[in-house]
Amino acid sequence: MSKEDKNPLLEQESFEKKQYKSVEDQKETLYGSNKLSQNDNILESKQKNKKFTPQQWATLLTLAFGNFCIGATISLQAPFFPQEAEKKGATPTEYGLVFGIYQLTMFLAAPLCGKIIAIVTPSFMLNAGIFIIGVASILFGFLDRAPNGNPFVYLALAVRVAEGFGSAAAKTSSYSIIALQFPNSVAKTFSLLETCIGIGLIAGPTIGGALYEVGGYELPFITAGALLLIDGILVYFVLPELDNSKIPRKSGDLFKFYKNLGTGLDFLVVFTTFNCVGFNQATLEPHLRQFNLTPFVLGSTFVISGAIYSITAPIWGWICDRLPSTRPITLMGCIFMSICQLFLGPTTFMPIDTQLWLVIVSLGIFGLAIGCKLVPTFIGALQNTIERGFPNDLTTYGLVSSMFTSAMALGAFVGPTVGGYLLDIIGFRKGTEILFGIEIGLFVLVAVYFVSFRLKLGETRPREPLMDSLTTAIISEGVRTKSISV
């Protein structure tokens, strides 16, 4: 058939097919193939459901054990160090600073570690961090042999600064190793390590008190340091070679993230929580001396709030994922914290004397307050940040986590430092009055924000739950969790 004899209808149909194919190609180029996207999601889901390899299990176990030891090292001195420091001539202000300088060092060193990790590699930074903490812990155990007065205080501060820097290095590198070794289970492994450090923080005072009762001042620190050095050796041999190029280089917009009233309020909620935690860490033991408790029993009282927090944190996470706004739970946390500060002393305007059972009940309420304030704050901050247009990816999680960690570290520094000063000047009971006033003020701020900026803007629409493992276990202290011991 000649070109002149071609059917014009067939030519038109062929032209339309080519046009349709061209349009489809453009759609696929611009927006990506829906089929490929669906297949990628299915593949990603299958990858997430895969079991860990033996190598991954070995890495996870060594990291978990190291985090437990780090948590215990941070908190084990709480039941007996204030009394030992006073024997050395240190004032409550001075040994309060010894407690707080650790967190201040973490606050300042963490960004530096994040900058240099690509140069030194995560594996080296992790081993160096664990080694520094282990050696510093052992050195802290020999401080009872230091001269009385200022030399003792200066040496204690120097060792705690080293511990804080080592912890910042270990924590920063752990996050990177998680992203490299467990790319499909970041939330799960992150929450597991946070839980381990939380358990260490909870058990630390009891273990420290028991070891102190058995072997004196040196035994708790030497034991913890030796275990950390052993873990460092295990990490060196177990951790595989890591491809440092796979670490995400993109960072979130920090200025845009903090340029929000809700984010600033979230920072304040976390700060005040750990401020109360740090206050107790430095001042609760002197307050309880009137009951003549043994070091083991005294250490056990520090566990109460942490145990309550660990038990209730997943429950608060489950509730928050089903509420249109997390602010009411935060308000409840402020109320619980206010009640705790009223009766923990109790405050001087309460016509009640200090009683051990009342202190124990108050510490239980304190554990509820920590969960009510920290869990909804992390969930709400993450939800709010994503709703503001930030991507639902690791960079946004990093921004929220950095805010949480910074507020935690700053509060945990101010709490024991100012707490020791208040104990020195006005005493424990009047010090709790100041914390009570701060919590009342925070309650008013959160309530005003909730009414003015959430209800009026119609932002109480139902929220879809975020990743279950992230929202219910990422703090369980967690975050902070880092302070559960008190």
TrEMBL record:
<dbReference type="InterPro" id="IPR036259">
    <property type="entry name" value="MFS_trans_sf"/>
</dbReference>
<keyword id="KW-0472">Membrane</keyword>
<feature type="transmembrane region" description="Helical">
    <location>
        <begin position="434"/>
        <end position="453"/>
    </location>
</feature>
<feature type="region of interest" description="Disordered">
    <location>
        <begin position="1"/>
        <end position="21"/>
    </location>
</feature>
<dbReference type="InterPro" id="IPR050930">
    <property type="entry name" value="MFS_Vesicular_Transporter"/>
</dbReference>
<feature type="transmembrane region" description="Helical">
    <location>
        <begin position="57"/>
        <end position="76"/>
    </location>
</feature>
<keyword id="KW-1133">Transmembrane helix</keyword>
<feature type="transmembrane region" description="Helical">
    <location>
        <begin position="296"/>
        <end position="319"/>
    </location>
</feature>
<keyword id="KW-0813">Transport</keyword>
<keyword id="KW-0532">Neurotransmitter transport</keyword>
<feature type="transmembrane region" description="Helical">
    <location>
        <begin position="124"/>
        <end position="143"/>
    </location>
</feature>
<feature type="transmembrane region" description="Helical">
    <location>
        <begin position="260"/>
        <end position="284"/>
    </location>
</feature>
<dbReference type="InterPro" id="IPR001958">
    <property type="entry name" value="Tet-R_TetA/multi-R_MdtG-like"/>
</dbReference>
<protein>
    <submittedName>
        <fullName>MFS-type transporter SLC18B1-like</fullName>
    </submittedName>
</protein>
<feature type="transmembrane region" description="Helical">
    <location>
        <begin position="394"/>
        <end position="414"/>
    </location>
</feature>
<feature type="transmembrane region" description="Helical">
    <location>
        <begin position="219"/>
        <end position="239"/>
    </location>
</feature>
<feature type="transmembrane region" description="Helical">
    <location>
        <begin position="356"/>
        <end position="382"/>
    </location>
</feature>
<dbReference type="Pfam" id="PF07690">
    <property type="entry name" value="MFS_1"/>
</dbReference>
<feature type="transmembrane region" description="Helical">
    <location>
        <begin position="331"/>
        <end position="350"/>
    </location>
</feature>
<dbReference type="InterPro" id="IPR011701">
    <property type="entry name" value="MFS"/>
</dbReference>
<dbReference type="InterPro" id="IPR020846">
    <property type="entry name" value="MFS_dom"/>
</dbReference>
<keyword id="KW-0812">Transmembrane</keyword>
<feature type="transmembrane region" description="Helical">
    <location>
        <begin position="96"/>
        <end position="117"/>
    </location>
</feature>
<feature type="domain" description="Major facilitator superfamily (MFS) profile">
    <location>
        <begin position="59"/>
        <end position="456"/>
    </location>
</feature>
<comment type="similarity">
    <text>Belongs to the major facilitator superfamily. Vesicular transporter family.</text>
</comment>
